[in-house]
Amino acid sequence: MENHVVLTKEGLKQLQERLEYLKNIKRPECTKAIAAARAFGDLSENSEYVAAKEEQSMCESEINELEEKIRNAKVINAKNIDASKVNLGCTVTLKDLTFNEELVYKLVGSTESDPANGLLSNESPAGKALLGAKVGDVVEYQSINAGVIKLKVLDIKA
Question: What does the alpha-carbon distance between residue 148 and residue 29 come to, in Å, rounded to a whole number?
Answer without folding.
Answer: 48
